[in-house]
Write a structure and sequence with these properties.
It contains 6 helices and no strands. It is mainly alpha-helical and 125 residues long. The longest helix is centred in the N-terminal third of the chain and has 16 residues. The N terminus is likely disordered.
Amino acid sequence: MNTSSKKTPGSRSPNDIDRHVGKKLRKLRLNAGLTLQDLAEQIGVSHQQLQKYETGANRLSVGMLPGVAEALDAEIMEFFEDADPTSRKKSKVEQLRSECEIWLRRTKSEESLRGMLRVLKALGS
């Protein structure tokens, strides 16, 4: 384990999980096509503060996470996927299934979901 993740109890310094969440935050923001300024305005922080969250210089608080996830149309658990280095590595197929699940959860339209289902059925046969 990295020494950077070992902190004294009560330490408020960012650790490995905080940095991982920051990387996921950046990835989700970019996937959503948002600038730092766009997302920062939506969640009520400066773009400089948002950049510090993304780089892991500052910790994103648990209280802010639901609002950030909502602004990115993401699930909170997406920020923690693959965060535990001791967990078993997902196979490529498991990783692809996880990514498909994310896109399915983000799809709100019944019509779109039916279209996606038709495509998946056609590809799977």
